[in-house]
């Protein structure tokens, strides 16, 4: 029996480590602003004179999607799930040389921004609601929290399992991690689809490159870790249950 127990113990320890890493990755990706990055090839000179007004529009309460997306294009913007950032010159006096030191300024999406309707033509509220983009955006905001919640709930069940020295709850923990992995995959899918649809409506200017950033990559890595943890939890619980039944049968015989 000792040999077998070691195998399960190892599987469970690895599963717990994978689960922990994926939780940290998810938390880091939710909290950082590099889901999507724009690289503006000729920013400095055209920003100095317009910098102040771009910045004021970017942070204003009623900045619509088109306004802030244009600013992201023009000023090396980065976007997270919660915040959007642009890089502008520190002091935009008309007499300062264009190569002034730049500073990155961020503004958070308010809760109402997260749930606000997206329009068929960004920035034009007479063009009607774009349901696809509206719901993709809401999902990309909610799914990471569901994913982390499921993993934390799984961890709680796991702790209870350790306290009761039972492996049955490991199956529940595994299933919760499987669901968390599906949520994370859904989040990544929604984000990619949302960005694609946005860029169809607001194409990138000639001199701007866009790419998915490292925060997005963390979420992508988190999903397979959750699936691997789920598989290990479920495998350990099922195989152990079989062994246990065999042992019982053997004892009875």
From TrEMBL:
<feature type="transmembrane region" description="Helical">
    <location>
        <begin position="214"/>
        <end position="237"/>
    </location>
</feature>
<dbReference type="InterPro" id="IPR004031">
    <property type="entry name" value="PMP22/EMP/MP20/Claudin"/>
</dbReference>
<feature type="transmembrane region" description="Helical">
    <location>
        <begin position="175"/>
        <end position="194"/>
    </location>
</feature>
<keyword id="KW-0812">Transmembrane</keyword>
<dbReference type="Pfam" id="PF13903">
    <property type="entry name" value="Claudin_2"/>
</dbReference>
<protein>
    <submittedName>
        <fullName>CLDN1 protein</fullName>
    </submittedName>
</protein>
<dbReference type="GO" id="GO:0016020">
    <property type="term" value="C:membrane"/>
</dbReference>
<keyword id="KW-0472">Membrane</keyword>
<keyword id="KW-1133">Transmembrane helix</keyword>
<feature type="transmembrane region" description="Helical">
    <location>
        <begin position="141"/>
        <end position="163"/>
    </location>
</feature>
<dbReference type="InterPro" id="IPR042356">
    <property type="entry name" value="CLDN1"/>
</dbReference>
């Amino acid at each position: 029996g000792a040999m077998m127990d070691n195998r399960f113990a190892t599987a469970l320890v690895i599963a717990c480590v994978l689960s922990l890493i994926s939780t940290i990755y998810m938390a880091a990706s939710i909290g950082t602003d590099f889901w999507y990055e724009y690289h503006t090839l000729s920013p400095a000179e055209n920003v100095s004179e317009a910098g102040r007004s771009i910045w004021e529009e970017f942070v204003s309460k009623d900045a619509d999607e088109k306004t802030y997306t244009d600013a992201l294009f023009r000023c090396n913007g980065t976007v997270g799930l919660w915040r959007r950032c642009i890089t502008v010159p520190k002091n935009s006096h008309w007499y300062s040389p264009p190569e002034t030191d730049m500073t990155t300024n961020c503004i958070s999406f308010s809760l109402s921004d997260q749930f606000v309707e997206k329009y068929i033509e960004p920035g034009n509220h007479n063009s009607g609601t774009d349901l696809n983009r509206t719901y993709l955006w809401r999902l990309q905001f909610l799914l990471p929290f569901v994913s982390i919640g499921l993993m934390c709930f799984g961890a709680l069940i796991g702790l209870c399992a350790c306290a009761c020295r039972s492996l049955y709850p490991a199956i529940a923990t595994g299933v919760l991690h499987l669901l968390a992995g599906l949520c994370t995959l859904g989040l990544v899918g929604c984000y990619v689809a949302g960005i694609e649809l946005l860029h169809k409506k607001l194409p990138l200017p000639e001199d701007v490159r866009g790419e998915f950033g490292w925060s997005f990559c963390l979420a992508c890595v988190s999903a397979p870790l959750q699936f691997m943890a789920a598989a290990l939890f479920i495998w350990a619980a099922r195989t152990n249950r079989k062994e246990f039944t065999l042992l019982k049968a053997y004892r009875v015989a």
